[in-house]
Design goal:
7-stranded mixed sheet, 11 strands, globular, Rossmann fold
Length: 330
C-alpha cells in the first residue's frame, strides 16, 4: 500500500476523441511511481488513480473507429484532483454538438476545485463550457484563426506550447500532451518524480522542464539559435547573479544586439526573461512546500526578500505566501 493517497485523475472520453492523446495521458499518469520502481526493484507507489469517464459510462468511439470502454460515468464523479480533456480527432463542429451534455460536468468539477487541462482542439470544449472566458489559452496553430473568431473573449496565444491560467491548463496540439502531462506530474509530485517519468518513458526532459515556464510566454518557437542558447543558460543558472552584460558576453555579442534579438524572438527583454524564469521556478517550489519565503528568495537569486515579494506579486497578483496557501500540494 502507498504511504499517501494517490491523486485522482479523470480523462473525459467522447465520440470523436483522438485516441493517442487520451491513452497517452492515461499511460503517463498511470505509470508515475510504477515504471521507475519496477526497473530498480523498488516498491511500486502509484502516484495517480487514473480513470477514463464518459457520459453515463457508455462506450465511445474515437477517431478511426477505435472503441473504448470507460472506467466510470462522468455523471457519478463527484470530485477529482485533475480533469483532462483530450484532443478532438473528428469534426470539431460534430463533436461540440454531440458533447454538449458534458459541459455542465466540466463546469461542475472545475467549481469543485479540480485542475482542468485540455490538449490541442480539446480547448474548444473548454471554451464551449465557458471555462476559458477572460483566460489565457492555447490550441493547435491550425485552429487558431477559427478559435479567435469563435471565442473572442479568450486570450489565445497559439505560439505557446502550454499555458496556465490559475488552475486551467491548455496544450497546443499533437504530442504536446506529453509536455502538459509532465508539467502536471511535476506540479503534483515534484521535479524528481517528473524526471523519473521522463527517463522511463523516454520523454525529452529538457523540453519537458521548459514547459513549466510556458504560462509566462517563455516557450517560443523561434529560429534564433543564439537566443535559444541564452535562454538555456538563464534557465540553468537563474540563481546566479545574472546581467545583460554577462549574457551578452556569454553569447559573444554586444548588449544592444542581445536586447534587440531577444525582444524579436521572445517578445521580452533579457532582464525580464531572467525575472520570469525565477518567478516560475519559485512558483513550483512554493507549490511543493520545499522552502520558506526567505529561503526561497535566496535560492532563486534574490538576497532582498521584500524585493522578491514585490516582484512575485507583480507577476502573479499574489504574495508568495498567498500563492503557496492557494496552490501548495500535500
Amino acid at each position: 500500500m502507498p504511504y499517501y493517497k494517490p491523486y485522482k485523475v479523470v480523462i473525459i472520453g467522447f465520440d470523436g476523441a483522438l485516441s493517442s492523446a487520451l491513452t497517452g495521458a492515461l499511460d503517463l499518469f498511470s505509470f508515475t511511481g510504477v515504471s521507475w520502481q519496477r526497473y530498480l526493484n523498488l516498491p511500486v507507489e502509484p502516484r495517480f488513480d487514473v480513470q477514463i469517464a464518459s457520459l453515463h459510462g457508455s462506450s465511445f468511439t474515437c477517431s478511426k473507429q477505435l472503441t473504448i470502454v470507460p472506467h466510470a460515468s462522468i455523471n457519478e464523479v463527484e470530485t477529482c484532483d485533475l480533469l483532462m480533456v483530450p484532443t478532438i480527432g473528428d469534426s470539431i463542429d460534430k463533436v461540440l454538438n454531440n458533447s454538449a451534455p458534458l459541459f455542465p460536468h466540466l463546469r461542475r468539477l472545475y467549481k469543485s476545485g479540480a485542475d482542468v487541462a485540455s490538449n490541442c482542439s480539446g480547448a474548444f470544449l473548454l471554451a464551449e463550457a465557458s471555462l476559458l472566458n477572460g483566460r489565457k489559452a492555447t490550441t493547435h496553430w491550425g485552429y487558431a484563426s477559427r478559435f479567435i473568431e469563435d471565442y473572442p473573449e479568450v486570450n489565445l496565444d497559439e505560439k505557446q506550447l502550454v499555458t496556465q491560467d490559475d488552475n486551467i491548463f491548455c496544450a497546443a496540439g499533437g504530442s504536446a500532451f506529453y509536455d502538459l502531462a509532465m508539467l502536471l506530474i511535476e506540479r503534483y509530485c515534484g521535479r524528481e518524480i517528473a524526471n523519473q517519468v521522463a527517463k522511463t518513458q523516454i520523454v525529452d526532459s529538457r523540453k519537458s522542464n521548459q514547459s513549466m515556464y510556458a504560462n509566462l510566454k517563455l516557450y517560443k518557437r523561434h529560429n534564433d539559435p543564439l537566443i535559444q542558447q541564452v535562454q538555456e543558460y538563464v534557465e540553468e543558472n537563474f540563481s546566479l547573479h545574472l546581467s545583460v552584460n554577462l549574457l551578452a558576453e556569454q553569447a559573444n555579442v554586444t548588449p544592444r544586439t542581445l536586447n534587440r534579438r531577444f525582444q524579436k524572438s521572445v517578445s521580452m527583454r533579457p532582464i525580464e526573461y531572467i525575472q520570469a524564469v525565477r518567478i516560475e521556478h519559485s512558483k513550483r517550489l512554493l507549490e511543493s512546500g520545499e522552502f520558506n519565503i526567505k529561503g526561497l528568495s535566496n535560492h532563486i537569486g534574490y538576497e532582498d526578500v521584500a524585493s522578491f515579494s514585490r516582484l512575485f506579486k507583480r507577476y502573479t497578483q499574489l504574495t508568495p505566501k498567498d500563492y503557496q496557501n492557494k496552490f501548495k500540494r500535500s
